[in-house]
From TrEMBL:
Coiled coil: none annotated. The keyword Cytoplasm does not apply. It comes from Mesorhizobium marinum. Residues 8-106 form the HTH hxlR-type domain. PROSITE patterns: HTH_HXLR. Keywords: DNA-binding, Transcription, Transcription regulation. The keyword Transcription applies. This is Winged helix-turn-helix transcriptional regulator.
Amino acid sequence: MTTFRSGCPIASTLDIIGDRWSLLIVRSMVMGASSYSDFLAAPEKIATNILAERLKRLEAVGLVVQTQPRKGSIRGTYALTAKGAALIPALQALARWGEENIPDRWPAPERFYAARPAGFGG
């Protein structure tokens, strides 16, 4: 269970996803990442211990689900839930803001901006 600092919806949302990695994991999932190794391949180079903790946290609050590992595999894959996919418009807004207000940023791929929450989750 998440402990919230206050009843403010912004503060409470930040209590869940306000660290430097959680939204990047969600972004990677929007772009097709689903395996542990996919997340490790992201350009930000998240450490394995942090990745494991964030995936557990995101799963605990219902933003992602983990599938059962296939036979012979250590880990399953991860997918956004409908609740996690509801973050897509916020991520797109953050990307647009960064492109418009921070010099020399990579443009987000068009398929990132084309993603819709209805295309994810169950």
